[in-house]
Amino acid sequence: MFQNIPLWPARASNFAGNVDALYIFLLTLCGLMCLAIFTMITIFVIKYRRRPGVYAEQIEGSNALEFTWTFIPLGIFLCIFVWSSAIYFQQHTPPKDSAEVYTVAKQWMWKFQHVEGQREINELHVPVGRDVRMIMTSQDVIHSFYVPAFRIKQDVLPGRYTVAWFRATKPGVYHLFCAEYCGTMHSGMIGDVVVMEPKDYQAWASGGAPSGSLADTGQGLFQSLGCNTCHRLDTQGRGPNLTGVFGRPVLLDDGRTVTADENYVRESILNPGAKVVSGFKPIMPTFQGIVSDEQLNALVAYIKSLSQQPAGAAGTPNMSPPTSETPLSNR
Amino acid sequence: MATATVPAVERENYLNKEYGVMSWLLTTDHKRIALLYLVSITFFFFIGGFFALLIRLELLTPAGDLMQADTYNKMFTMHGQVMVFFFLIPAVPAVLGNFLIPIMIGAKDLAFPRVNLLSWYLFIAGGAFMLYTILTGGVDTGWTFYTPLSTQFLDTHVVAAALAIFIAGFSSILTGLNFIVTIHRMRAPGMTWSRLPLFVWANYATAIIQVLGTPVLAITLMLVALERIFHLGIFNPQMGGDPLLFQHLFWFYSHPAVYIMILPGMGVVSEVVTAFARKRIFGYRFMALALIAIAVLGFLVWAHHMFIAGISLYAAMVFSLLSYFVAVPSAIKVFNWTSTMYRGSISYTTPMLYALGFIGLFTMGGLTGLFLAALGIDVHVTDTYFVIAHFHYIMVGGMVLAYMAGIHYWWPKMSGRMYPESWGRLAALIIFIGFNLTFFPQFILGYLGMPRRYWQYAPEFQVLNVLSTAGATILAVGYILPMIYLLWSMRYGKPAEANPWHAAGLEWMIESPPKTFNFDETPTVTWEAYNYDELNQEVPVER
After folding, report:
1. In chain A, what are the domains?
2. What percent of chain B has pLDDT over 70?
3. Which superfamily, per CATH, for B24-509?
4. Which B positions 428-467 lie with beta carbon below 8 A of chain A?
């Protein structure tokens, strides 16, 4: 029965090989370490077993040995640290032209919004070979987006966006698990990540016939909520003109400068008084409780599209927005 | 309990000096309080173990079929809370530490005997709230109480459970304070810091963490209770709170708490390995220094529990680096224990078998910690069964085995009776096998991606889960055996000599069991710890 038990899950992302390489290195290293210690213990326990007339030899210790087994392990640990940090750095530095999938987690379900407009629940379709950036938030408690075959996991928090990214490398259907305990049906908050060849993906994407891109939905909301009465796009209104704002630094009225990323846009809609743009009055009402997390995602996608050139290409994946290239801080 | 079993003809000792329930409930004798703790934590150990068994039974099949999802969530929550706060944390310090520290330093009692009794009552009060929580429906926050789940989304007994841990925490603080003052102020003439047994050093390092860390847990749990009761916006993002703040506060205590649970075990193992190898400890100063280094560095690594929680990239790197630093003193300890056996005169008694098991399993637990401190790998294995296996190798393979080693080693001193040696060895072997069968498959499960706290799981994980459950039943037998033969030995065991192991240390220079104030007159210490070269070398060969 044991031949059916693999030692690692399928490798289906750009990270899987790197993570497994380090894992196998550590397995080997630690395996040898265990073997060495267990062998020594076994030899000592047998060779120096108590015998009549044979006494223990008293040894104080050895500074040379102590320093050896302090600094050699430390050196090895530092190598592991550097190697593993390099992987982590990569995991937290999505390429700037990634396709984007907005994710809303809730007890006990995963909701995905593709920028092209498709929406999915507990199923995520992605093509092989495309960098995908997951922009995730939670409607209630903390969840965690975990795809073992991709070797990625990222907690999904209420009240902010966190980000994960991957590039799928092998077609197939893979587990999606919630990895942060989230209440009664935590173990039921699972789904499938369907990795498809690009042409199959295109067929799938055009099959659903979405009503419009996510940014289009956002534009509709921008008007129906009356955002455009202050945030005019042709001139400077009572609120800042949002054209070209996304991804750029913004000077605040308290003198600080922040980057207008997803989290900033989100916060400015829900808690407009927190970071007011320099030169404007804090007159914007909060939209907390008025817009849902999915609608917020649409608004963010729309505001992001206002910074993309040429105008009108909103929502087209891999059109690079001028996002900052600093690693994600997730704040 | 033990009073009735000591024959009346014996000389007066701490067990037969007084009889009756009140003589126990109002005692200020550190040895009697140690036994009160022994009975209390054994009770909680079996409650926590019962929950563990139910968890393993549910996981025998992929479907959630033995109990409801909510029930399962309560099982793993209460298993964690009971085992961590009502067994592992008090286990060695409150039982063995209480009994031995005054004797080992040549004192008549702890510095504050009544505070010592108070700390047991606080433990019992906390335990009563925990029992109330269990009996009135339980709590399902996970032992970690993560917000906002615990503060806004659950309607179980969260406040009662938090209160239970809050109160038990004060018991831990008082024990720590008592040890620190005792070790500073009550050492016998000649018992310098460099002559202290490592068991005392280990409990000293532990006490520092207890005193500095536990108040933070108390504050954190109070904030959880306040947020639940008064709906304050501390952790609730909708009211401007921050759920990550909770995790920082919680792990600021709960990571050092891991060292509260393992350092005293390291102390036990140092005593046992030296006694049964009949040797000085290898590198005494490095061993003592490593204990303190772990206690101090342990406060600087808490966010390694949060690498995927949404902390910044660079914060994660700093905490990863510091986690590797704290691994170094642990490695030093393993190397020194192993070297202590070199050219020794080793006998295979029950405590030694447990201590050898400890070294092996702690090594595996520690080495798998290197995987978790590695950022890129932690992302994949955190919150999976890999973590479960890792910390059970430390907590059960490490601490519980050390505790068992200590209980057997000092049982003659505590009870005045010898336990049956062959039964002891058999139980040690069963525990070792059962433990590895339970937890080794979980490393593989974790890397395959099975998340922790799953009531139902994907069918491909079943074989490894069945192995794990099989191991747990073996482990259960291994725990019940000592319970039976130790109780049996209190009545029928061979009366113990003052020093049945021919071991070094002040505790072996007084009668078994000791009299109420330990020493007729305060001893003057003129020897180093583990002075096996000065003891009679002719020791019978154990068979």
Report:
1. 99-207 (2.60.40.420), 214-305 (1.10.760.10)
2. 97
3. Cytochrome c oxidase-like, subunit I domain (1.20.210.10)
4. 444, 447-449, 451-458, 460, 463-464
- Collapse the DSSP code of B328 into the 3-class scheme (helix H, G, I; strand E, B; otherwise coil) and give the result: helix
Please write the tens of the pLDDT for every residue from A178-221: 999 999 999 999 999 999 999 999 999 887 666 788 998 999 99
CB-based contact, B320 to chain A, within 8 Å: yes
**Residue ranges of domains in chain B:** 24-509
Check CB contact of B421 with chain A, cutoff 8 Å: no
Out of A41, A48, A152, the one facing B343 most closely (by C-beta) is A48
- The interface predicted TM-score of the complex, written ipTM, equals 0.92
Longest dimension (CA), chain B: 73
pLDDT digits (tens, 9 = 90+) for B131-171: 999 999 999 999 999 999 999 999 899 999 999 999 999 99
Chain A residues whose CB is inside 8 A of the B332 CB are: 66, 69-70
Between chains, do A86 and B377 touch, taking CB under 8 Å as contact? Answer: no
Cis amide leading into A108 (omega within 30) = yes
pTM (predicted TM-score): 0.92
DSSP A234-292: SS--SS---TTTTTSEEEBTTS-EEE--HHHHHHHHH-TTSSPBTTS-S-PPP-TTTS-
CB contact under 8 A, B148 and A140: yes
Beta strands (DSSP E) in B11-128 are none
Longest dimension (CA), chain A: 100
**Which amino acid, residue B186?**
M
Any idea what the Cα angle at residue A199 is, between residues A198 and A202, rounded to 5°? Answer: 85
- In angstroms, the CA A136 to CA A180 distance is 14
* Residue in A closest to B442 by C-alpha: A7
Q: Could you write out the three-class secondary structure of B329-363?
A: HHHHHHHHHHHHHCCCCECCCHHHHHHHHHHHHHH
Q: Say how far apart CA B57 and CA B398 lie, in whole Å.
A: 24
Is B532 within 8 Å of A58 (Cβ atoms)?
yes
Inter-chain touch B370–A80, beta carbons under 8 Å: yes
